[in-house]
Every structure is written in structure tokens, then in C-alpha cells.
Amino acid sequence: MRGPGQHLPGLSRQLPRPAPRTLLALLLPPAPGAGRDPPWLARYRGLFALALAMALLPWLLPNNFFFGVAILVGLNAIVCVGLNLLIGYAGQISLGHAAFFGLGAYVSAILSAQFGWEPALAMLAGAVVVGLLAFVVARPILRLSGHYLAMATLGLGVIISIVLVHETRLTGGPDGMAVPPLRLLGTEIVGARAWYWLVAGALLIAVWLALNLVDSPLGRALRGLESSEVAAESVAIDTVRTKTRVFVISAVFASVAGSLFAHYSGFLTPAEASFPRSIELVTMVVLGGMASTYGAVVGAAILTVLPQALTVFHDYEQVMLGLILMLTMVFMPKGLVPNLALYLKRRLP
Asked: Cα–Cα distance between 108 and 260 in angstroms, integer?
């Protein structure tokens, strides 16, 4: 007989030792039969991968032009992450979301340029104004569905765009207006690299907030809405209140991104709140994959970078862009990220 502290001969050689958790092992999902990861790791694995990619990207960008493209990718991705909550998870279409982007940008620009507000405080005020406006219009608009809802959000976007064009005393009208630089904690944000890190941090926060919201009771209610509003109401979900909350959240995401864009670019025109801009944002969400937070980021990245890459086709740039989008939707109807995830799940052991 052996004591409790002793082991049988050869037992340590027969039992496999646990493999060390390398960085790659943390970023990749576990293999079948390897056990389940902690809930926090399963939720934030993609966030860690995104943070690692954004940390390595500056080493690959050769000049300020590419930094500028990366900054625009981040700003578009912030809007799309919020818009995906509304379209992808709640199943509510919005064809006027660029209006919230433009309105947040103009409120921040006007308060800082004409009234001397600190830009950070002006950005906060822009988010509050846009959130209140979204809350006021959400209840009557979100009682509609389908193409009626699409037309209502389109009308809202057109109204805001017209106001920005004709209020020349405040907005400068079609000629636009200059925007002062952004200052945070008394320090002016200058240079492409500084803006890159600021936008990258904002994008990480936006993705983190979206992931937590999707896994919250509100997120489960949103998925119920997307499946069937009647079924959601039968289990005591207040559908109008739930849609209103996600509508306001997505509008605030767009407002913050718009304010950052205004101070980054230093100049603002009403084109940022136009209908084509809204269609572009919706296309980014659909291309990347609805009901996929990382799909929204990927879609924003592709549709921001692709026009730059297609300039070699000159007059046929828009034709090539439309062809790529059409083929993607034909062969990947669920969007890029969900279809690629399904493909890898089937192919990899």
C-alpha cells in the first residue's frame, strides 16, 4: 500500500500534461474535446485579437495617408457597431443614420468654434442632443415596421440634412465650416499617429460595450425582437421600449464618431449627413455580416479601403465596387464574417 502523498510508478509519464496557454491559444477557440474556456475569455477573445491587430498595424503603415485611411476605418466602424445593434440584432432598418453622425459632428463643431466650449465637453453635448432627439422620434417611428420604418427613418435623415444645409448662420451651409482641433486634458491631439491611437481606443470601447450589451438581458430581448415581435410580446418583452433603447444607443455611437471626425478633419460639410452616406453605412453592416459585432468592423474596413484600392480602374471604379458587393451578397448572403466562420468550422478539425 502507498501513502496518500505517493504516486504509482510511471503514472506521471502516462497522464498528459496540460499545454501552456500561449497567446495564439488564447486568441483561437478551443479544439473539440479540449474543454471550455472561462466565460470572459470566450466573450472577449475576438476583442483581444482586434486589439492586437490594431497595436501591430502602425508598424505596417508607411506614411500619413495610410494612417488617415486607418482612422476613417475606425470612425466608420464605431458607427457600424452601433448600427449593427439596431439592424442586425433588433432587425430594425434605418436609412437615415448618417444624420445622427452629421448632427453630432455639427453640434460639437458649433459649440467649440462659435461658443468657445472645450471640444471634449462639446462632444458630450452632441451625444446628449442626438440621444434626446433619437429618444423623442423613436417611439412614433419604431411602431412601424418593414418598408414603412425604412421610409420614416429616411424622412428623418432628409429633414436633418436639409436643416444643416439651410442654417448657414450656424453651419456655414453647403460651403461647410472650420472645426477647431481636439483637446483632451489640456493636450491638443495633433498628428496622424496620435489620432490613430485615440480612434483605436474609442473603437475598442465601442466593441466592448456592444459585446456586453448583446450578452445582457437587453441583447436577448433584441434577438427575440429580430425573430418575432409577436413572440417577444408574448413573453412580456416591451417591444417599443426595447427598440427605443437600442435606437438611442446606436444614435449615440454615431454621434460620438461624428464628433471625432469633425475635430480630426478640421472641416465639416452637410454631405456627412446625406442619404448616400446612410446607404454606405448600411452596406458596411450587411457586407460584414448582420448580428456580428466583428462583422460590422470588417465591413467598415473593407468599404473604406476598397474604393482607395480600386482607383486604378479610374472611370470604372464604381462599377468594380458594385460588382464586388453583388458577388459577395450572392455567394455569402449572411455576410463575410458569419460565412467565413461557418466555413472554418466545417473545414478545420
From this structure: 9
* CA nearest neighbour of 122 among 111, 133, 114: 111
DSSP assignments along 207-262, one per residue: HHHHHHHHTSHHHHHHHHHHH-HHHHHHTT--HHHHHHHHHHHHHHHHHHHHHHHH
Residue 95 gets which letter from DSSP? S
Task: Give me 323's grid cell.
Answer: 460588382
| pLDDT in 10s for each residue of the chain, 349 residues | 444 444 444 444 444 444 444 544 445 555 544 456 666 566 778 899 999 999 999 999 999 999 999 999 999 999 999 999 999 998 898 999 999 999 999 999 999 999 999 999 999 999 999 999 999 999 889 888 888 888 999 999 999 999 999 999 999 999 999 999 998 888 889 999 999 999 999 999 999 999 999 989 888 888 887 777 778 877 778 888 899 999 999 999 999 999 999 999 999 999 999 999 999 999 999 999 988 999 999 999 999 998 888 887 777 777 887 888 888 888 888 888 888 888 888 877 6
Q: Residue 144 in 3-state DSSP?
A: coil
- Closest C-alpha among 289, 257, 292, 297 to residue 273: 257
Please give the tally of structural domains in the chain: 1
Give domain status of residue 16, yes or no.
Answer: no
Closest to 330 in 3D by CA, of 279, 287, 299? 287
Distance CA 292, CA 300 (A): 12
Give the integer Cα–Cα distance in Å for 44 and 210: 11
Of 68, 58, 54, nearest to 207 by C-alpha is 54
Phi then psi for 268, rounded to 5 degrees?
Answer: -140, 135
Span between the terminal Cα atoms of the chain, in Å: 44
Cα 283–chain centre separation: 13
Tell me whether residue 101 is in a domain: yes
On whether residue 133 sits in a domain, the answer given is yes
DSSP state of 271: G
Q: Which residue has the cell 439651410?
A: 166
* Domain that residue 259 falls in: 65-275
Q: Which residue do the cell numbers 496518500 mark?
A: 4
Please indicate, yes or no, if residue 199 is contained in any of the structural domains. yes
